[in-house]
Amino acid sequence: MSSTKILIIEDEQDVIDLLTLNLRKAGFTLSTATDGAAGLRKAREELPALIILDLMLPRMPGLEICKVLKTDTNTRQIPIIMLTAKAEEIDRIVGLEFGADDYVTKPFSPRELVLRVHAILRRGKGEIAEEKKLSIGTITLDPARHHVSVAGKSVRLTSVEFKLLSMLMHRQGRVQARDRLLNEVWGYESAIDTRTVDTHVRRLRKKLGKASAAIETVRGFGYRIRES
Ligand code: CA
Q1: CATH code where residue 22 lies
Q2: Amino acid 228: pLDDT
Q3: Same domain, 107 and 87
Q4: Which of 125, 148, 175 is the last residue of a domain?
Q5: Range ranked top by mean pLDDT from 9-23, 75-89, 95-109, 112-126
Q6: What integer pLDDT is reported at residue 86 of this predicted model?
Q7: How far apart are the CA of 218 and the centre of ligand 1, in A?
């Protein structure tokens, strides 16, 4: 059996070396591309288990690659971790909107990145068990079809946003702590960065529009869906 393949799309050789060294040590098989166009081609041909995608790339920007991969039914299920520089806050937000699964800010700790890779790959296997259709207010969630609608209108959510909403809806009325959500939605064992939760909740609320009033922020703790 071949080991899990990760595709690295990055143009800086020292970052490639750092990633290669650490991921190989963790038992992964690696493939690399040093420009955007080659990266997209490899992603389509090799269908890796996960992609680590730099944002600033020659020939095709990382965001464009993310968008293309996440709208193609052959590649949309491949998790993407974006590598961003601190100054690229806006790109990061857009990247999450385009369906990237996580982001890591440069300079990053290789150990943390490997932990995140493991967590994301684990997450793909342990899907949320509950299959029952749920409605709260105007929001309807159908786990079997992986579909969400607000007042009958379909809403496109990323897989992370879907899991987040599903978790909150199934536990209506109960506050969900940020670190618990990180653990159950993202698969992280320790609270690496709870702001990740806030960023995704913000995106989710925006997509739900007025219906998002059902999601309450419990200051300093987490989130819950109000009892109706
Ligand atoms: Ca770069």
Answers
A1: 3.40.50.2300
A2: 66
A3: yes
A4: 125
A5: 9-23
A6: 65
A7: 38
Distance 74 CA to ligand 1 centre (A): 26
Please check the confidence at residue 5 and state whether its pLDDT lies above 70. Answer: yes
From the CA of 58, how far away is ligand 1's center (Å)?
A: 8
Q: Are 4 and 28 in contact (CB under 8 A)?
A: yes
Position 128 confidence tier, pLDDT thresholds 50, 70, 90: very low
Mean pLDDT of 129-146: 82
Ligand 1 center–CA 167 separation, angstroms: 35
Ligand 1 center to residue 84 CA distance, Å?
9
Helices (H), 80-189: 89-97, 110-125, 159-170, 178-181
Final residue of a structural domain among 94, 125, 156: 125
* Angle (deg, nearest 10), helices 89-97 and 195-208: 60
Structural domain count, the chain:
2
Most distant CA atoms of the chain, gap in Å:
54
Q: 47 is written with which tokens?
A: 């269908």
Quick one: 112 and 193 in the same domain? no
Ligand 1 centroid to Cα of residue 147, in Å, is: 35
On whether both 121 and 14 belong to a single domain, the answer is yes
Whether 119 and 186 map to the same domain: the answer is: no
What is the CA(52)–ligand 1 centre distance, in A? 12
CA of 20 to the centre of ligand 1 (A): 16
CA of 166 to the centre of ligand 1 (A): 35
Q: What is the mean pLDDT of the chain?
A: 87
CB 56 within 8 A of CB 62: yes
The whole-number pLDDT of residue 1 equals 42
Same domain, 29 and 100: yes
| 12 and 32 belong to one structural domain | yes
Residues with CB under 5 A from ligand 1 (ion): 11, 54, 56
Instruction: Tell me what pLDDT residue 178 has.
Output: 87
Supply the range of the domain harboring residue 78.
5-125
Q: Which residue has the tokens 């998790």?
A: 79
